[in-house]
């Protein structure tokens, strides 16, 4: 880590007390440091005393955050420093005698505290009024395996993890462009969570980027307890009753890299494997990586199928309920779809009960041990399928359509979008059951209004490029177009040749 990056750890935070400047006396610095962190009480805070160039020195580190091998080799080198070779200040010592790449110096104890809590190793040497810091962190993390939710049939199998530096490395591995910017900010008065803003200089919207940085700098929160969700709620204080997602989340580095190249801004939060992509319209949220890992014809088919499935999942059960309330308006060729058996429970109540039951089963499957998931799923299918119909609680037609709706919800990669469609579907059914055709019409208008009135961060329309209309961009959102090859400069050069 370069010195300027280490100093930027505390950027954007207001201090509650006066800055504590370091002293040239190691005894005073040790007393202040021990008063803040109490290494004799915290077993994971390690204090290592040593002598460098004939001067008393001390190293502080957090066990579990430090690469022991790197630190050992660094200490071995510093043991060989002679007293006559010791520079006059800590900065010269860092430049001449600290054999490590990611180093820096700090003169303020508050900055030292923030860097230390982030896992950076701190070195105090008697006679220097600076703290020498070494970024030899080694965070505990899992492997970069494919995300469970964002799986693809073809393509990369790596995914973001909970360590911020690994996530930025996965993006830089895909974009080897010097215009890629990764800026670090600190959010949370107590948690001081690292938040990285990634964008392509010259491609990202400068107004949205400036607005985002300003909002992050002005945030006054205690901590980001829910990682990116806490940050999203702080960034966008809009209408809480509009369930449609304001941001797109992805755990795939290839998706994040593609969005960056298209001018989007990526926000990464430490301890979270999800990347926040903004600004995002409804077309962005519905897109998936599979659309681009197949040829244009196949990608277009998958995309249009996803759009159609989402549309049918929203209106299938409300339209069927409307048909059952007005059987005289049903065409003859659709008469077979009407309920033939006796209806013991009102249809709208059957649909609502099954909506809640599906979510209950989903929550149960999350908490079910893997060894029991298969037998319990078989039991649930038998009980809720055959026996539920035989008992008279549900009609077979209701079970059929709700089974389709339940499966259609999984066609969406975004949990937020699938639940937004679910809430709108339940609202449509209730209005249709109470007010019949007028209720269905009013519910449809409400759904369209909820989508149209939704705003992304920066105020951009949620329906762009439909509203405001941009035909070329709308074509790209609906159809998977072929990716162009070659640079613009090369094309112009070829055209200029005789």
Walk me through the structure.
Residues 1-19 and 485-498 have low confidence and may be disordered. The protein is built from 17 helices and ten strands. The two termini are 51 Å apart. Strand 9 and strand 10 (275-278) form a beta hairpin. It is elongated, with a radius of gyration of 29 Å. It is 47% helix and 11% strand. The protein has helices at residues 3-7, 26-37, 68-79, 90-97, 109-117, 164-174, 206-218, 228-235, 253-261, 282-286, 296-325, 347-367, 370-390, 396-409, 415-453, 471-478, 488-496, and strands at residues 45-52, 55-62, 103-106, 121-125, 131-134, 180-187, 193-200, 248-250, 265-269, 275-278.
Q: Which terms would index this structure?
A:
alpha+beta; 5-stranded antiparallel β-sheet; 10 strands; 17 helices; elongated; 498 residues
Q: What share of the residues does DSSP label as strand, in percent?
A: 5-15%
- Overall pLDDT: 85
Oligomeric status: single chain
Q: How many beta-strand runs?
A: 10
* Helicity level: 40-55%
Low-confidence stretches: 1-19, 485-498
Count the helices. How many?
A: 17
Rg, please?
29 Å
> In terms of structural class, how would the helical and strand content be classed?
alpha+beta
How would you describe the shape?
elongated
Q: Strand sequence of the main sheet, in spatial order? A: 1-2-4-5-3
The SSE order reads HHEEHHEHEEHEEHHEHEEHHHHHHHH
> CA-to-CA gap between the ends?
51 Å
Largest sheet: 5 strands, antiparallel
Per-chain topology:
Layout: H1 3-7, H2 26-37, E1 45-52, E2 55-62, H3 68-79, H4 90-97, E3 103-106, H5 109-117, E4 121-125, E5 131-134, H6 164-174, E6 180-187, E7 193-200, H7 206-218, H8 228-235, E8 248-250, H9 253-261, E9 265-269, E10 275-278, H10 282-286, H11 296-325, H12 347-367, H13 370-390, H14 396-409, H15 415-453, H16 471-478, H17 488-496
Antiparallel strand pairs: 1-2, 2-4, 3-5, 4-5, 6-7, 7-9, 8-10, 9-10
């Amino acid at each position: 880590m370069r010195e300027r990056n280490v100093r930027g750890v505390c950027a954007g935070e207001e201090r509650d007390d006066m800055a504590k400047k370091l002293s040239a006396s190691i005894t005073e610095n040790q007393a202040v440091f021990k008063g803040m962190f109490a290494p004799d009480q915290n077993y994971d805070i390690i204090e290592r005393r040593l002598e460098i160039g004939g001067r008393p020195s001390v190293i502080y580190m957090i066990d579990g955050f430090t690469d022991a091998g790197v630190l050992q080799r660094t200490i071995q080198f510093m043991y060989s420093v002679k007293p006559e070779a010791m520079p006059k200040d800590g900065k010269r010592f860092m430049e001449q005698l600290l054999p490590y790449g990611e180093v820096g110096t700090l003169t303020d104890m508050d900055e030292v505290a923030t860097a230390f809590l982030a896992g950076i190793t701190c070195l105090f040497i008697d006679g220097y009024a600076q703290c020498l810091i070494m970024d030899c962190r080694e965070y505990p993390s899992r492997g970069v395996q494919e995300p469970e939710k964002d799986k693809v049939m073809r393509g990369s199998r790596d995914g973001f993890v909970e360590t911020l530096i690994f996530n930025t490395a996965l993006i830089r591995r895909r974009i080897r462009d010097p215009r890629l910017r990764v800026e670090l900010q600190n959010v949370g008065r107590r948690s001081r969570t690292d938040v990285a803003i990634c964008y392509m200089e010259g491609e990202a919207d400068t107004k949205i980027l400036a607005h985002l940085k300003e909002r992050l700098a002005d945030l006054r929160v205690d901590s980001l307890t829910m990682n990116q969700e806490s940050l999203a709620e702080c960034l966008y204080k809009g209408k809480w009753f509009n369930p449609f997602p304001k941001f797109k989340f992805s755990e795939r580095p290839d998706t994040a890299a593609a969005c960056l190249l298209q001018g989007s801004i990526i926000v990464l939060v430490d301890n979270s494997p999800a990347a926040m992509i903004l600004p995002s319209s409804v077309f962005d949220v519905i897109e998936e990586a599979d659309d681009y890992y197949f040829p244009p014809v196949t990608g277009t088919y998958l995309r249009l199928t996803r759009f159609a499935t989402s549309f049918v999942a929203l209106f299938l059960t409300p339209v069927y309920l409307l048909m059952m309330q007005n059987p005289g308006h049903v065409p003859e060729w659709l008469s077979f779809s009407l309920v033939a058996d006796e209806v013991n429970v009102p249809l709208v109540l059957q649909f609502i009960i099954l909506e809640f039951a599906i979510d209950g089963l989903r929550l149960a499957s999350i908490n079910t041990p893997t060894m029991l998931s298969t037998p319990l799923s078989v039991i649930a299918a038998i009980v809720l399928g055959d026996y539920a119909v035989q008992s008279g609680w549900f009609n077979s037609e209701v079970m059929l359509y709700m089974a389709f709706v339940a499966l259609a919800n999984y066609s969406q990669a975004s949990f937020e979008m699938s639940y937004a469609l679910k809430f709108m579907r339940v609202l449509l059914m209730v209005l249709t059951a109470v007010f019949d055709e007028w209720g269905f019409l009013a519910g449809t208008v409400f759904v369209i209004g909820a989508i149209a009135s939704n705003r992304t961060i920066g105020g951009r329309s949620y329906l762009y490029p439909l509203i405001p209309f941009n035909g070329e961009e709308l074509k790209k959102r609906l159809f998977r177009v072929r990716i162009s090859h070659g640079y613009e400069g090369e094309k112009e050069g070829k055209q200029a040749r005789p």
